[in-house]
Design goal:
560 residues; mainly beta; Glucose Permease (Domain IIA); Chondroitinase Ac, Chain A, domain 3; 4 domains; 45% strand
């Protein structure tokens, strides 16, 4: 009888979900491209440090495909950034939604000309400006730009979002009735079991491969020494015509035919997107590179609106020693559904326990103080409790010891001030030339550190290895063209500017004393020739400054 009740409840939920989706306008928005929608990424996918906030639509592997306004409205915002969305336009519509088009190349000529005037007025390539409704009105199907590969894009595509205009929260575009061919159900590959009486960072989960049998994905009885467990899945979704991995829209878990909770991936604001670190097993992601999505909610996970829990936030009690059946269903936005059937049993035994530690607690401030290093975390910094580990090691090449502040596999949500005391004398004139160097064991990076009453501090958001170093070397600027080159056929001129310790904070180029608009892509800075560079012989002065104020200047002469 209980199984019948569960199946009926599940069908009622799916019916209600479809009815809820119909609250979004169906067919109001057109395809932003002139080609079938084939996805390289969808809403809610796990990405480094955030949930994916829209659809990545393939553009046949090419740039400069026409991009169209999906409905009437007006271009309400232009954003130009070296990473992130790159070149982006926002269109506000009269029905309460705003659409975003990102990684673009050029905009339509009138918009492009307006944007360039603003860049030269502000003497800054990066822009984020809001526009009035009467400046650039558009109709459904008006071309607004050409697709590209700008910003944090690794291949040509269009990133497309639909946002609630009032809240600015991205919504799941797959729920708005776009014609997308997809009859492939999500494919789970692994199930993971956690001890919920311990911190997620102080354990290694039991990970079991799933096998497909009789239409379901199954795992034979998993035995564990843990009375209270949590479940996670490694799962990918796919669509017709694409081999890129996607994610499900909704998923639910039941134990012994009683639904325990459900996840629904919709309406994820940029103010909460970093909570992805609590939505997944971050430790396993850092160590093994795979995304395990948690079907329980960590203490410091504020994504309450994504979950519907029966009780106890997904923690399952199996202390009675019986074999318990787990049913997990996953559905994509097109209604394709997969099911997992697994069995779990408490097998009394000894589970490893954490010894004495410097305990940091989630949902409360935590601090660590040492004669030469200290830090303080606020009450939102941690997603789960942890045993803070600390060690130090002498480093004669640095201005301080190397301090190991716990491990990079424990994520920190909010920034905190890290203060380190140098063990070498630093002259007054060099106080603004100190950098804080961070290492996660693989990569190393630096940022400017500020003098603070004998200490040096910087705002950081990671655990790992830290030290102080002197930074007196300016960035290195190199021309990607020969000196005195003849560039009559060239479309652009490019330089690289790299800093060995921190980063290039400011890059400025002038020609005949006038500022030139250079765009940055990684370490490359380039200027596309326009009316601001006259034909004939020109002298360009390029200056790069790092975070500690070290400056390098290059004079470059060329003929156009």
């Amino acid at each position: 009888m209980r199984k019948v009740v569960f199946v009926l409840a599940h069908l009622l939920y799916l019916s209600a979900a479809k009815a809820q989706n119909s609250n979004y306008p169906q067919g109001y928005f057109r395809n932003p491209l002139d080609m079938p929608i084939i996805l390289a990424g969808n809403f809610g996918e796990c990405r480094p440090n955030h949930f994916h906030s829209g659809l990545d639509i393939k553009t046949l592997g090419k740039e400069n495909q026409p991009v169209y306004a999906v409905a009437e409205g007006y271009i309400s915002r232009i954003k130009m950034e070296r990473g992130g969305f790159g070149h982006a336009l926002y269109v506000t519509h009269p029905n309460g939604y705003t659409t975003l088009y990102a990684h673009l190349n050029d905009f339509m000529p009138n918009v492009q000309a307006y944007m360039k005037r603003e860049q030269y007025k502000k003497e800054n390539w990066e822009l984020d400006i809001s526009l009035p409704p009467n400046l650039f009105p558009v109709k459904k199907g008006t071309q607004i730009a050409w697709s590209g590969n700008t910003g944090a894009s690794t291949a040509p595509h269009l990133h497309f979002e639909i946002r609630n205009t009032a809240t600015e929260h991205p919504l799941n575009p797959m729920l708005f009735g776009f014609e997308i061919k997809d009859d492939i159900a999500p494919i789970p590959t692994q199930i993971a079991i956690y001890n919920m009486d311990k911190s997620i960072y102080e354990q290694t989960p039991i990970i079991v491969a799933l096998k497909k049998r009789a239409g379901n994905y199954v795992a034979d009885t998993i035995k564990t020494a843990n009375k209270n467990i949590g479940v996670a899945l490694h799962v990918n979704d796919y669509m017709n015509g694409s081999d890129n991995t996607l994610t499900f829209y909704t998923a639910g878990i039941a134990m012994d035919s009683v639904e325990q909770g459900r996840i629904k991936l919709d309406d994820i604001g940029y103010d909460v997107t970093r909570y992805l670190h609590a939505y997944v097993d971050y430790k396993t992601r850092k160590s093994k590179g795979q995304w395990l999505q948690l079907f329980f909610q960590l203490k410091g996970n504020a994504l309450n609106h994504l979950y519907t829990w029966k009780d106890n936030k997904g923690i399952l009690n199996i202390a009675d020693g019986n074999v318990h059946k787990l049913d997990i269903d996953m559905q994509d936005a097109n209604g394709n559904t997969s099911n997992i059937v697994a069995y779990i049993q408490y097998n009394q035994g000894v589970d490893s326990t954490t010894g004495v530690c410097n305990s940091f607690k989630a949902l409360q401030p935590n601090k660590f103080e040492h004669p030469n290093v200290n830090l303080q975390l606020d009450d939102k910094a941690l997603y789960d409790d942890m045993c803070f580990q600390f060690s130090s090691k002498a480093d004669v090449a640095s201005l301080s010891d190397r301090f190991q502040l716990h491990q990079p596999y424990v994520p920190v949500h909010t920034y905190f001030d890290l203060r380190i005391k140098p063990n070498k004398a630093i002259g007054f004139a060099q106080r603004d030339k100190v950098a804080l160097i961070y290492s996660d064991g693989t990569d190393e990076s630096g940022k400017s550190a500020i003098y603070d009453a004998g200490w040096y501090k910087a705002s950081v958001r990671n655990f790992g290895n830290y030290r102080l170093a002197m930074d007196t070397q300016p960035p290195v600027i190199k021309s990607l063209q020969k000196q005195n080159a003849v560039l009559t056929k060239a479309k652009r001129i490019s330089f690289t500017a790299k800093d060995a310790i921190t980063s290039v904070k400011k890059f400025r180029a002038t020609i005949n004393g006038q500022w030139l608009c250079f765009e940055q892509r990684g370490d490359v800075f380039f200027y596309t020739f326009d009316e601001h560079c006259t034909k004939g012989k020109n002298t360009m002065v390029v200056t790069a400054t790092d975070e500690n104020g070290n400056t390098q200047t290059l004079n470059y002469t060329f003929t156009r």
